[in-house]
């Protein structure tokens, strides 16, 4: 008996710690192959290949816990299960009206032999990449636990080229750097440009979505999907081994996630293709999110809007009403006694002018920032109670302006700058949304500028991540659509909550007037930031010389006027702003016509040309007509496209209007030189189009 027990325990030991045979799982088309195994220490590990080329070399998985044995060794495989899934689903809005979700799945059920704690790894393998997540079933052995660090590795097969922004717990509003992985450390100091609230964490730390290209032509993207009740994942490069290590955003105490079972992490995603266009066409992130949970989505409508906004960003006007108050106690302040500063933009007269302009040119909404009291000392004071989100300034007639807008078939768009005081926003949220319902607003642009309150928390920690989703869910109860700036970068949650119609969460057009944007920026964003969801990039700046708007502001756009048009197609969003001042559009009414006509919801999207950092050309078919629209964005070297219109209906003649850079156009010297050409086209037409340095083009093809 004794010897039997001895043999059994030796056998068990051998079973537990000898590497088990790898389990392989291929994508439906067989090109992407995932392999899972346990190392001899019982550490879960995986690798990924694409057409037999290595995408992720053997990489280990697990967690360091704050207390008790970590979840990174001594595992055995208890069971595993394979399934296949295929369906087509219809997004409420999107780049296409039907999305295919087709994957093979492997779920590996693991048990830690030393603690009997259970952890499952679920892998989904698509034709365009892999998603995996950790799952913790309900169990006595693991109830409440605190993560000290997630230990997911992404081992690169070479010193790839990367398009990266610094890893940061608080902001993504950075310019991209293009470099080899091995150069990240030396380039980091110049990449960490100043921002009002920033917390970079490592000289080799970068953010997701991260875009990479291998020397042998593989395009690889690392990101996450369905980030819920968990901190945002960054990547920290071990440059000696070219391994990215997950790095979670901590909370105020340095902890990296408070969880209790049953629970699971977000999906870690690896997209791959040897054709850059397929990365843009990928719906992997959306597919890994849960289907829509809202039973009625009829109130969710794509929005094209203008706003009382650019004049504040350029410094021409102010959000604040008065210069009288050095500090403000919101409960005691009396604005009726304050002297107006004369630059407050959100006043009745101006807002009416914007409403008239929106009505005349067919825009759905007018955003008005600086309408509510508190802006005099909102910025950077770590002040808890800055805004109440319901009290207008004396020169903003909340009721009258809404009635005026509605009488003209236009809505006002609400603005909630929270000054990153999340708790204060949550305290006022119900009344703020109710006020919107009372006056007929159905969309809000929210914002989170500055350091988070509660103090010590970060924009991308678990606490703040939960706040952003709370705001979206509460908004849905009030039939309100949300466009959140400075919030967590999106991870496809707009599939589940399609009232999340936009986010900023990257360096947007405002930086053209505040600092700079590199000309190649918009050739990278669709590969990175837009993978998780639409961006309120606020394009459409026609007066590229900002000093013409505000003589004190010397900035110039890093884009031509024609490229500003192209962005309405290349930067997909169901929410698009025409961001310039009405008077600037009035100077270029022929080019403005494109912004008026371009749809914000699509039946089909075709990615005609793409190379990160260089150019992107996309053709999209309107969801509600047979018209097509083409857009291009190009870097500082310009680009010549030869595109075939073979996507048009065979035998039908269309009328194309081409908005292009003039031959002499150049983003630095002649940004506003454009041409407009009309031409009959059909499915056999080939067009040669030239984007200037920092330029682009747009085409409207009417059926
Ligand atoms: C930053 C946002 O990105 C910008 O659009 C907004 O105008 C300001 N915050 C003020 O809320
Ligand atoms: Ca911003």
From TrEMBL:
It comes from the Bacteria. Residues 309-506 form the Glycosyl-hydrolase 97 catalytic domain. The keyword Transmembrane helix does not apply. Pfam families: GH97_C (PF14509), GH97_N (PF14508), Glyco_hydro_97 (PF10566). Residues 1-22 form the signal peptide. InterPro entries: Aldolase_TIM, GH, GH-type_carb-bd, GH97_C, GH97_catalytic, GH97_N, Glycosyl_hydrolase_97. One of its GO terms (molecular function) is hydrolase activity. Residues 601-701 form the Glycosyl-hydrolase 97 C-terminal oligomerisation domain. Residues 25-291 form the Glycosyl-hydrolase 97 N-terminal domain. Keywords: Calcium, Hydrolase, Signal. Its cofactor is Ca(2+). The keyword Hydrolase applies. Monomer. This is Glycoside hydrolase family 97 protein. The lineage of its organism: Bacteria, Pseudomonadati, Bacteroidota, Flavobacteriia, Flavobacteriales.
């Amino acid at each position: 008996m004794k010897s039997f027990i001895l043999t059994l325990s030796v056998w068990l030991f051998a079973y537990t710690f000898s590497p088990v045979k790898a389990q392989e799982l291929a994508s439906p088309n067989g090109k992407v192959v995932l392999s899972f195994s346990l190392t001899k220490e019982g550490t879960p590990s995986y690798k990924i290949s694409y057409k037999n080329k290595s995408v992720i070399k053997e990489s280990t998985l697990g967690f360091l816990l704050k207390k008790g044995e970590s979840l990174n060794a001594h595992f055995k495989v208890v069971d595993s299960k394979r399934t296949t899934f295929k369906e087509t689903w219809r997004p409420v809005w999107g780049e296409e009206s039907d999305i295919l979700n087709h994957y093979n799945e492997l779920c590996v059920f693991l048990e830690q032999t030393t603690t009997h704690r259970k952890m499952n790894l679920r892998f989904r393998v698509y034709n365009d990449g892999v998603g995996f997540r950790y799952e913790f079933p309900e169990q006595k052995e693991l109830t409440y636990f605190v993560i000290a660090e997630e230990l997911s590795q992404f081992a690169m097969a070479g010193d790839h080229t990367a398009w990266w922004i610094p890893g940061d717990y608080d902001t993504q509003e950075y310019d991209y750097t293009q470099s080899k992985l091995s150069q990240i450390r030396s380039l980091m100091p110049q990449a960490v440009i100043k921002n009002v609230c920033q917390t970079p964490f490592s000289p080799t730390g970068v953010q997701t979505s991260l875009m990479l290209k291998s020397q042998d032509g593989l395009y690889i993207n690392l990101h996450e999907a369905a980030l819920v009740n968990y901190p945002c994942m960054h990547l920290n490069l071990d440059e000696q081994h070219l391994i990215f290590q997950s790095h979670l955003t901590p909370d105020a105490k340095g902890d990296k996630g408070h969880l209790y079972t049953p629970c699971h992490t977000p999906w870690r995603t690896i997209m791959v293709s040897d054709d850059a266009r397929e990365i843009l066409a990928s719906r992997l992130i959306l597919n890994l999110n849960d289907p829509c949970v809202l039973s009625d989505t009829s109130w969710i409508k794509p929005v094209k809007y203008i706003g009382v906004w650019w004049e504040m960003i350029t410094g021409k006007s102010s959000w604040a009403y008065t210069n009288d108050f050095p500090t403000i106690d919101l409960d005691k302040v009396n604005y009726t006694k304050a002297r107006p500063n004369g630059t407050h933009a959100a006043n009745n007269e101006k807002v009416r002018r914007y409403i008239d302009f929106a009505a005349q040119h067919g825009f759905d909404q007018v955003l008005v920032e600086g309408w509510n009291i508190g802006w005099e000392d909102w910025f950077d004071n770590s002040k808890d109670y800055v805004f109440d989100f319901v009290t207008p300034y004396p020169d903003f007639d909340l009721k009258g302006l809404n009635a005026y807008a509605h009488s003209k078939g236009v809505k006002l768009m609400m603005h909630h700058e929270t000054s990153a005081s999340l708790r204060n926003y949550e305290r006022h949220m119900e009344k703020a949304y109710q006020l919107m319902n009372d006056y007929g607003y159905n969309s809000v642009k929210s914002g989170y500028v500055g350091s988070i309150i509660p103090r010590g928390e970060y924009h991308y920690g678990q606490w703040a991540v939960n706040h952003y989703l709370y705001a979206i869910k509460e908004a849905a109860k009030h039939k309100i659509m949300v466009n959140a700036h400075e919030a967590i970068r999106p991870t496809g949650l707009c599939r589940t909550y399609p009232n999340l119609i936009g986010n900023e969460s990257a360096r947007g057009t405002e930086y053209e007037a505040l600092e700079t944007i590199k000309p190649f920026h918009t050739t990278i964003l669709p590969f990175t930031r837009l993978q998780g969801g639409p961006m309120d990039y606020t394009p459409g700046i026609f007066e590229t010389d900002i000093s013409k708007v505000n003589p004190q502001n010397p900035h110039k756009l890093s884009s031509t006027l024609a490229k500003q048009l192209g962005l309405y197609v290349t930067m997909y969003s169901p929410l698009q702003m025409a961001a310039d001042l009405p008077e600037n559009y009035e100077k270029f009414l022929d080019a403005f016509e494109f912004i008026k006509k371009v749809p914000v919801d699509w039946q089909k999207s075709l990615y005609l040309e793409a190379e990160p950092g260089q150019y992107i050309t996309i053709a999209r078919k309107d969801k509600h007509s047979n018209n097509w629209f083409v857009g291009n964005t190009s870097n500082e070297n310009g680009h010549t496209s030869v595109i075939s219109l073979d996507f048009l209906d065979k035998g039908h003649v269309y009328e194309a209007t081409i908005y292009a850079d003039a031959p002499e156009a150049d983003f630095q010297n002649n940004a506003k030189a454009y041409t407009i050409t009309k031409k009959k086209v059909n499915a056999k037409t080939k067009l040669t189009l030239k984007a200037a340095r920092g330029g682009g083009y747009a085409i409207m093809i009417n059926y």
